[in-house]
Structures are given as structure tokens and as C-alpha cells.
Amino acid sequence: MRASTVFLISGIGFFLLSFLGMGLAPWTSLKGLQPPPGYQVRTDLEEYGRQIFIREGCWHCHTQFVRPVVNEALYYEGPVSTAAEYLYEIPQLFGTRRVGPDLAREAGKKTDDWHYAHLYNPRSVVPWSVMPAYPWYFEEKDGKIVPKREAQALVAYLQSLGRDKLPVMRAMDSTYRATFSVGPRPPRTQDLLERGRELFLRECSGCHGPDGRARSLAARMLTPPPADLTVIHPTPEYVYEVTYLGIPGSAMPHFRRYTNEDVWAIAYYVESLYREPPLPPAAPEKTPELLARGQTLYGQMCSSCHGEQGFGDGPAAAPLKPAPANFRKLRPSVVHTFDVLTRGVPGTAMAAYAHLPEEDRWALAYYVEELSRGAESLTASLTPAGPEAPPSRPAPESPGQPEPSPKPEAASAGPEPTPELLARGKSVYAQVCLACHGAAGDGKGPAGAALNPPPADFTDTEWKHGGAPEAIFRVITDGVPGTAMAPFGHLPEEDRWALVYYVKSFSDPELRKLLK
After folding, report:
1. Closest CA to 363 of 294, 446, 444, 278
2. Burial of 38 (0-12, 13-18, 19+ CB in 10 A)
3. Residue 140 DSSP SS3
4. pLDDT tens for each residue of 335-375
């Protein structure tokens, strides 16, 4: 027999052996295979996203298989892939090359808006990315970049990858957070600052901008927006913590793959970006009396979330994501606090308080500044102001006449509801109530889902604290202890009555007619 014939027969034999051993034999072991616990069939939108993923060749650079090798599960923060996960994956998208990260455990790791920004322009959130941009999957409406159906489908598909493993992944993350501690702090040197600058430009500049001012493309697409690092003065320990843990509820991911020294380098560099913004000419002078006013307002309006001492540990804070600011760690500037009070923070429970008198907002901003400096600073800045600083009131008519003592609120004899009063109530509601109670009054506002107990559903005719106008007025004025419902006694009485009738209009057809 000639050698060529031997080689031919051997080649065919080895091919058949390989086919049987690596193709058919493993296939027979999959008989009776069942979907993993928690498996969910993809929706039509997710299935369409998978088709786009295949069509665009995303699988060339992204695998979907956590391999059974050392540290793979730790690196991708999820268990090793199993055969059952791919039962209905036809064709399977295991992939072979990892130009980009593996996506088998992508569900819940990033927010939808992060994925949209990444799809629109990958460099907007990952400056060193080599992924192509897909701007044709978006359109501009009213100055905003809005995803088309293709982008929505692709992101929905990405968020479905590994969702049956979410309980395991969340448990792994919870364990990491529970055992996390700030690592040893190296000396602050110029070399370390330079290293921090390099890492900041590589990982952080996409969202926060190369100068830290957050004037970036991502800032237009992310909710809540990236922080302007020049108007807050976070402690290095806080930056270290955020870098390793991220900020749940926001697009800020974690960067656990970096070494302790690298994370300290980033922390030192971020701290160095702070620039004290000058006060505008209209800002009042900080006085003990103004601080006392701020202290009173803070106790009424802010402590339920931010805590009495500003540690972000108020009774309503635990379920909120993102968590309320810890002023002792964040150390915001006075101007920044005033701006936040005026505009709020979209995507968080922090509503706008533009309805407050400007002097009251400055009083709060000054008080938060002192609070962020610690108890000693507060003690030195505040003079004894009695049990409660008086609310702002007009000066007495005659110079020698003493101001009358504030009288307790009377919750009776409210004005008659009118179309004008309800229209006023709608405006005030949008400013102070909508974030929790929602535009429809059903308690499903953007911040409502995270609250426990949940916000009241005004469309329900059964009112827990009474549905009479006087009872609602009392709740608005005094708040509800043990909940996120803060007192709004600082609002003008007419505004509170306007709110009373507007919230009742959600369940009262006659009041709705007046509103129309």
C-alpha cells in the first residue's frame, strides 16, 4: 500500500474519531438537559437585539462564555458558564476572541443609559475603547440624543445576558461590599499624582471630562449626570471607596481590577481637581443667624435622607439608589449646594427646591458647608439660637414693635378650591412632590420605587391619614415621621392648600373638572 493511501485513510479515520469524540459524544450527554433555575425566555425586543448583535458582528470581539479557569468567575463577577444556559442558543455565540469584555454575565452590571452612551460613542464612557460607534441607531429630539428601536433592542438583549444568575452575582457583590475596607494609604508624591492623572484620562475622562468639569458627551446621556469634580472636594478615602465599589443606581461603575496604589493615585488626583467657585454678588454674608436658619431648614427638609449629622444615613436613606450624599465625605462647595437645591439632581431622589426663598437656599448651602467640616466647625460657627430658629418673616411695621411669636399652624378653614388654586397646586406639586409620588399621583415617581414605606398613592380613595382637606394639610405641614415624607411647613400657606386640592384631584372627579 502506498504511503499516500495510508495517510488518506489515517486522515479520514482521525477526522471521524474527532467528530465522534468531540461532537457526538458530548451531545449525547446533554439528553434530558433542563433550563437553569430562573431562566426567562427572551422577549421579542430582546430577540431582535440578538439578531442585531449577530448582524453587526459583535461576537467577533465579545465572547459569551465564562471559562472554567482560575479567577475567571471572579474577574467577570459571576459563576462559570454551564451547558444548560445555552440550551436554546441557536446559533451559540461563545466566540473565541476577547477584544472587548465577555458578556455572559452582563445583566445588571451597567445602567441602560451607560449602554446607550457606549453604543452611541464608546469613547464617551471608555476613552480607550476600540469599538466602532453606532450613531445611526439614535436621533436627536428637543436637544436630547434618543435611542431608536434598534438601540433599545440591543441594550435589552445585553441586559438579558446572564439574568438567571443575577441572585448569585448579587450575593457575590454583597459579600465583596460587606468585606471591603480602604487599603493602606501610600505617601502622596508627585509621581503618584502623575500616575493618577494618566489613569483618570484613561478611565474617567470620558464621563467627567479631561478637566473634571463633566462637560462631556456622556453628560448629555447619563442620568444622573457625572459629577463636576471641580466644585466638590471629596476626601481621598471616599474617592477610593467609589472607585472600588462604584455608585449603585448610577452609571458610575467600579474599577476593582486596579491595584491599591493605582486607586490611591486616582483618589489623590481627583482631590487635586477641586477649585473653590467664587460666590456670586447676590449671595448673602454667612452669619450665625443665617446658619441657624439653615440648621432649622436642614432638620425639616434634609435630615430624613442625609441624616442629622450629614452622613447620608437618615431614616429614608437605606433603600435609595443612588444613596443620599454623605456631606462629610463629599464636601460640596457652597455654590454647588445652592445649585443642587435650585435644580435638583435628575435620576435621584434629590428634588429641586427652587420654590424656597433664595435666602433660605443660601442658608442651607452655608449650613451644609459647615456640616461637611465636622462638629467642631458647627460649634464654632453657630451661636445659641434657642430650640428653633424662626422662619423668615416681614420686618415689624414700627421699629419699636417686637415681632410676634410664631403661632402653631391651624389646619382648618382652608380656602375654597378654584381653577387658579388647583393650577398653582399643580405647579408646586411638580417642584416638590412629583419625584416620589409620580406625575399620575400613583406613588410611582422616579424616586418612589426605592422608598420603604412607599409614597402614598393619591389615586386611591382610601387615605391612610385621612382624606379631609384639613388632614392632608396637616400631613403636608408636619410630614410623616418614620417615612421619607418630610414636613413642608416652610411653604406659604396658600401653596400648601393648593397642594391639598391638587393631590385630592387625583381621586376626586369634581376637582379634576376644576383643574381642566
Report:
1. 294
2. exposed
3. strand
4. 999 999 999 998 888 888 888 899 999 999 999 999 999 86
